[in-house]
Structure formats: C-alpha cells, structure tokens
Design a protein that fits this description.
This protein has about 350 residues and is an alpha/beta fold. The protein folds into 2 domains: about 5-150, Cytidine Deaminase, domain 2 (3-Layer(aba) Sandwich); about 155-350, 3-Layer(aba) Sandwich (Dihydrofolate Reductase, subunit A), CATH 3.40.430.10. The protein has helices spanning about 5-15, 55-60, 95-100, 120-125, 135-145, 145-155, 185-195, 205-210, 260-270, 280-290; strands at about 30-35, 40-45, 75-80, 105, 130, 160-165, 200-205, 230-235, 250-255, 275, 295-300, 325-335, 340-350. The protein has an 8-stranded mixed β-sheet with strand order 9-8-7-10-6-11-13-12, sandwiched between helices. Helix 1 packs parallel to helix 5, helix 2 packs parallel to helix 3 and helix 3 runs parallel beside helix 4 (about 120-125).
Length: about 350
C-alpha cells in the first residue's frame, strides 16, 4: 500500500511522463520520481523518445548533477511503467536501480512488451520490495498514458479514433455543402486538444480538396500547441497539399483507398494513434473494415432535414447486420449562444461467433 508521499510521487511521475515536448510514437512515455526513506524528493526523470535515457536512468543521472551525488541508497523509485529488463539502445533499467542501491520500487503498470518485461522479477529476486498496489485511478492513468503504444503491441497497427460532428438528424453538412460550424466552440476546442494526443490526423482527398484543412492543433486564440500530429491525406486521386504552416506537423500522402494499407504505412512510420477526421466516405471505409476502435461524436441540437450524412454507406442491408456501439461516456458542452452540444464516446461492439 502506498503512503501519501508515494501517491504524490506517482501523480508527479505521470505528469512529467506526459510532457508535451516528448514525441509520441513507437516508444512508451514513462516517468520516475526518486524518494528518500523520509519521503523527500531526491530526483525525477522521464523518457524523451527513442534513443534517449529511460526514465529511471534519467532520474538517477539527475541525482548526480553539478558534481554533487545525492545518495539514493535505500530510496524508493516510483515509476509509471515496469522497469525494463533487456538491453536495447540503453541498458536494463532494473539493473540500474539495483546498482544504485534502490530499496523499494513502486510500479503503476506492468510492461506488456514481451521483449522488455521481467524487471519486476529481477528486482524481487535481488531482494527489492516491489509494490504494484497503486490506487485504481492512478493505474488507469498509467494505462491511458500509453494506450496507443500498447494497442500497437497487441494488434500491430495504430489505435484508431474516428471523430464526427453531426446534427440530430445525422447530417454533417447542409444541402448546399456548408458545414462550418455545426457544433460550437467548446466542441472545436476539444478536437484541437484531441489532436495533441494523437500521432497522426487523417483525412481523405475529398476533404482535403473541399475544405483545405490545416489539421493542426491550435489553442482558442490561434497559437499552435507544442505537440503537432502528422497530417495525413489518404486516397489515390489528386488533392492539394495541406497548408504549409510554421510549426505544423509533417504531412504525408497515403496513396491507397484501403484503410488497412493506410494504417500499415503509418505504423511503419512509428505512428501508434490515428485520428480519422476524413469525412463521411473515409469514416465509412474504416467502419466497414472494422478498424475503428473508438468513435467520438459531437452532436449538435439542431436539424437540417437534408444534406450530406455524417457517415456514408456501410453496406448494411438488413437490421440484423447493424453496427452496434457501446456508449462509454456522455459530456455536455455548453455554447455561448445557449445551445448545448453533446460529446459521445462510443466503442464498436465486437461480434462474437
């Protein structure tokens, strides 16, 4: 059971692991805080991407900065992910903790990577106390921190979040093609924050041609967030390049109409979480292929009666074959004009044979 200092340290480790300066992609985000036996903070560290020091090694190095070595003998290492037990670009973190004289290790989440796991066993075999009994909300936060990375380990493809905005009668645009803005500023602000948590934002050539989107993550006043996603356009037809904006993410053309092929190309680039914002045709393609892991719907309390549907044909011809979704969460998003949008988080229900 964690004491108050260790609970604080784990929250802090999760916070520094999520540093927006850390690139997303094929490496997990990890934070570490070292506590003295009295519960005082000795040092903290976090992983900053492929080829950089792991969080534990970073924290130990920071305990030795400026020519002064802070003793960590008997200290507690509080980490968001199980210390690795393999040698890659850097040495095993479990061994580094042992060599430093750490006496106790608190771990929020076991490593699901079969190549790197084993740190818990190595530490315990050496007589180090390892505590995995962390508060449920902190364990959940550690899981969420690297959900794209973990999904990639399990499925060898990126996690896919599809986002759509629609009216009560399921329209994404009016009959004349206008679509800005169906939802209010609160929903739009959420979308920009969502982009900062994803490795890539994907649209089709039709959306790129019709809307000329930037696909950047911007603050309400227009400034770019520090972390920007890769901007991807999927499709074989010609489409204009996305706007070239200082500080915006790199852009890529995916010359395929096949969602599986597009995800494979992105996965090979190190992308582990894709946000599909590609309009009714691309969204339908990913849904038909069974490649949407979660669906975010911004629902506006308005009616159009005609216009473009939010999702195109799913090739469902009978009610028995409908695509059911589980409602995970509902949030009200008040708008200045008095209307209230809803944000729905849904996950497609996997059919069992």
């Amino acid at each position: 059971m964690l004491d108050a200092a260790e609970r604080w340290a784990l929250r802090r480790a999760l916070e520094i692991a999520a540093d927006p300066a850390v690139p997303l992609g094929p490496n997990p985000r990890v934070g570490c805080v070292l506590l003295s036996p009295a519960g005082e903070v000795l040092a903290e560290g976090h992983h900053r991407g492929a080829g950089t020091a792991h969080a534990e090694a970073d924290a130990l190095a920071r305990a030795r900065t400026d020519g002064v070595t802070t003793s960590v003998t008997g200290a507690t290492a509080v980490v968001t992910l199980e210390p690795c037990a393999h040698r890659g670009r850097t040495g095993p973190c479990a061994d580094a903790l042992l060599e430093a004289g750490i006496g106790r290790v608190v771990i929020a989440r076991q490593d699901p990577n079969p190549v790197a796991t084993g740190g818990i066993e190595r530490l315990r075999e050496a007589g180090i106390e390892v505590d995995l009994d962390v508060p449920e909300e902190l364990a959940a936060a550690a899981e969420t921190l690297n959900r794209g990375w973990e999904h990639g380990l399990q499925h060898a493809r990126p996690l896919v979040t599809a986002k759509i905005a629609l009216t009560l009668d399921g329209r994404a645009a009016a009959a004349d093609g206008t679509s800005q803005w169906i939802t209010g500023p609160a929903a739009r602000e959420e979308v920009h924050l969502l982009r900062t948590t994803c490795d890539a934002v994907l649209v089709g050539t039709g959306t790129a041609r019709a809307d000329d989107p930037t696909l950047t993550a911007r603050r309400p006043e227009g400034a770019l967030y520090p972390r920007q996603p890769l901007r991807a356009v999927m499709g074989t037809s010609t489409a204009p390049s996305l706007p070239d904006i200082d500080g915006a993410g790199e852009q890529v053309r995916l010359l395929t109409h096949d969602p599986s092929a597009a995800l494979e190309l992105l996965f090979d680039r190190g992308i582990r979480h894709v946000l599909v914002e590609g309009g009714p045709i691309v969204t339908a393609a990913f849904l038909r292929a069974g490649l949407v892991d979660e669906l975010i719907v911004h629902l506006a309390p308005t009616l159009l009666g005609a216009g473009r549907p939010a999702v195109e044909d799913l090739s469902i011809t009978t009610l028995a074959n409908r695509l059911d979704l589980d409602l995970v969460d509902v949030v009200m998003l008040p708008s200045p004009g008095g209307a209230t949008d809803l944000r729905l988080l849904l996950r497609p229900r996997r059919r069992t044979a």
